[in-house]
Design goal:
The complex is a heterodimer. Chain A is mainly alpha-helical. Chain A contains nine helices and no strands. The radius of gyration of chain A is 18 Å and the shape is elongated. By secondary structure, chain B is an alpha/beta fold. Chain B has a domain of about 140 residues: Rossmann fold. In chain B, β1 and β2 form a beta hairpin. In chain B, α3 packs parallel to α5 and α4 packs across α5. The chains are: A mainly alpha, B alpha/beta. Chains A and B meet through α1, α4 and α5 of A and α2, β5 and α3 of B.
């Protein structure tokens, strides 16, 4: 356990420190939610129905922003070599890195999401559901995004590649979460979409580390 | 634990180029191997293959005394090269502690490493502020703080000053006398008794 605790501590410290920690993602998130009413008209009657959905979609995009660097640094500075000669399997190391990524950027974003939704005119009652979707969805985004980051290792213009790989994998959770929010807005109960989203998150957390491990090994070798 | 290292018929390819083939050697407990060869001949690749980071094209790498080679690599192998995995934004002490905890050492090991490698004045500095030699000493600290039997060292002497080279030679001698194994890629002769092996000849 001691090595893993040390790794978690280090990844969290690096996550907070890396390029301003959660601030770039939060800033990007704030920019989308501020610019949307400016671009699409500030008529609350038009904004309110899409507010929760926009807050949710912007969260997916903002989590994408910080993903590129997830393994890049470790790949370049020999950090992956050090992590691979440690006692834990590489898959577990990757899972820890994604978890730290979620804590340092996904969690702050999830806390910002209901605020953004309400600011855009979503009814206050939807805030808990937006928070629930953002918490679960953010975890899925971190793990699935890790696959993209690992596959893009060693390529130039990695950021573009990460986005291309990851966007199709981001679509299902965005759809499930969006469906939950829409159903709640229509008053027909959000549990179906939310359960699908949770299922997707579980699958992402369980399966992504295998893909990330294989991709990292391939990049290092 | 690892009591011997046996390599048979090893071939490594990087891209289109075969670096070497049919490489074979055996290293027993308490023995050191000095790898020499021109730049790009494959010394680093061989070390990385031994550490399990790089898949050889052909051949076999076996650790005597270990049931499972992969498990042995997770517990019994140190690899130290130019890219040392230390993070520039963290202090030397934080990275020292992490290396030790991650590779299976404890607080006594950390204290011993600080003592042996004279790291005390560096502890509060950010890693990015260290000179190349200081940084190498910090990386080498894991050899002391987390004892493991097989050391794979890539140009370990290169950035060190004369006094630290003598120090490292002493560490190596002590490791060998305790039954350890060392494989080191070098350009200058190792200051300890070692078998030589030229790569890519």
């Amino acid at each position: 356990m001691r090595p893993l605790i040390a790794l978690i501590e280090r990844e969290l410290a690096l996550g907070w420190g890396r390029g301003g920690g959660p601030l770039p993602a939060l800033g990007f998130y704030a920019a989308i939610t501020v610019l949307l009413p400016l671009a699409g008209g500030s008529d609350t009657g038009r904004l309110a129905p899409v507010a929760a959905g926009v807050a949710w979609m912007a969260l997916a995009l903002a989590s994408l922003l910080s993903l590129e660097r997830l393994f890049e640094r470790d790949y370049e500075d020999g950090g992956l070599d050090l992590l691979m000669t440690g006692p834990a399997p590489l898959e577990l190391v990757c899972a820890v890195k994604c978890l730290a990524q979620w804590v340092t950027t996904g969690l702050p974003l999830a806390l910002a999401a209901p605020v953004a939704a309400v600011m855009l005119g979503a009814p206050l009652e939807t805030a808990p559901l937006v928070l629930a979707c953002a918490l679960a969805g953010g975890l899925a985004f971190a793990f699935v995004g890790g696959i993209g980051a690992a596959l893009a290792l060693g390529s130039r213009r990695g950021g573009l590649l990460v986005a291309m790989i990851v966007l199709p994998l981001f679509s299902p959770p965005v759809i499930f979460g969006g469906a939950a929010l829409q159903a709640a807005a229509l008053g027909s109960g959000a549990s179906g979409g939310l359960l699908l989203l949770l299922g997707w998150t579980l699958a992402a957390v369980g399966l992504s580390p295998l893909a990330m491990g294989a991709a990292c090994r391939n990049a290092v070798g | 634990m690892i009591t011997g290292l046996r390599v048979e018929g090893l071939a490594i390819r990087r891209g289109e180029r075969v670096l070497f083939r049919d490489l074979a050697f055996r290293l027993g407990a308490g023995e050191a191997l000095a790898l020499t060869g021109a730049n790009g001949s494959g010394k680093t690749s061989l070390l990385r293959a031994l550490a399990g980071l790089l898949r050889p094209e052909a051949g076999r790498i076996a650790f005597e005394g270990a049931v499972d080679a992969d498990a042995a690599r997770h517990e019994a192998v140190h690899l130290i090269g130019h890219a040392d995995g230390l993070k520039g934004g963290r202090t030397a002490l934080e990275e020292l502690r992490f290396q030790a905890a991650w590779l299976g050492g404890d607080d006594h090991g950390v204290a011993a490493a600080i003592e042996t490698l004279a790291l005390k004045p560096l502890l509060d500095l950010e890693v990015r502020r260290l000179s190349a030699g200081q940084r190498r000493r910090l990386a080498l600290a894991r050899l002391v703080s987390a004892p493991r039997p097989l050391w794979l060292l890539d140009e370990p002497m290169a950035p060190l000053d004369a006094a630290r080279r003598t120090l490292l030679a002493g560490m190596m001698r002590e490791h060998l006398s305790g039954g350890g194994l060392i494989v080191a890629a070098v350009h200058d002769p190792l200051p300890i008794d070692a078998t030589g092996l030229e790569i890519g000849a």
